[in-house]
């Protein structure tokens, strides 16, 4: 939490599972956070950040409303089912 009344809380982070020895596809880092510090959003968002490992601050940050975050969750669950995995 921030002292200015705005909330930003890290939920989880990690790296993709692609082998790191591929120059065409460097290892990517991901992070999921909760944020209430975006004036343009006007409410809480799930923030998903993806960037190349070792290049903090150079990636993309998605500010997802609850409905969009749920849609992403369903898409990942569907992809896992297609692979024969249970979400």
Model description:
The structure is a single chain. The protein has 87 residues and is of the alpha+beta class. The protein has one domain. The chain has one helix and four strands. The protein has one helix spanning 66-82, and strands at residues 8-15, 28-35, 45-52, 60-64. A four-stranded antiparallel β-sheet has the order 1-2-3-4. A hairpin with a 7-residue loop joins strand 3 (45-52) and strand 4 (60-64).
- The low-pLDDT segments are none
Distance between the termini: 30 Å
Q: How would you sum up the global shape? A: flat
Estimated share of beta-strand residues: 25-35%
H/I helix tally: 1
How many distinct beta strands?
A: 4
Mean pLDDT: 86
* Domain unit count: 1
Rg, alpha carbons: 15 Å
Main sheet characteristics: 4 strands, antiparallel
- The computed structural class is alpha+beta
Sketch the topology as an H/E string, one letter per element. EEEEH
For the biggest β-sheet, the strand order reads: 1-2-3-4
Helix content: 10-25%
Task: Produce the secondary structure layout.
Layout: E1 8-15, E2 28-35, E3 45-52, E4 60-64, H1 66-82
Antiparallel strand pairs: 1-2, 2-3, 3-4
List its traits.
alpha+beta; 87 residues; flat
Summed up:
The chain contains one helix and four strands.
């Amino acid at each position: 939490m921030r002292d200015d009344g705005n909330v930003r809380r890290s939920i989880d982070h990690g790296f993709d599972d692609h082998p790191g020895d591929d120059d065409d596809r460097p290892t990517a880092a991901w992070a999921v956070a909760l944020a209430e510090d975006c004036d343009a959003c006007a409410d809480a968002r799930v923030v998903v950040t993806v960037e190349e490992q070792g290049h903090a601050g150079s990636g993309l940050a998605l500010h997802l409303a609850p409905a969009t975050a749920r849609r992403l969750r369903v898409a990942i669950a569907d992809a896992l089912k297609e692979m024969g995995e249970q979400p």
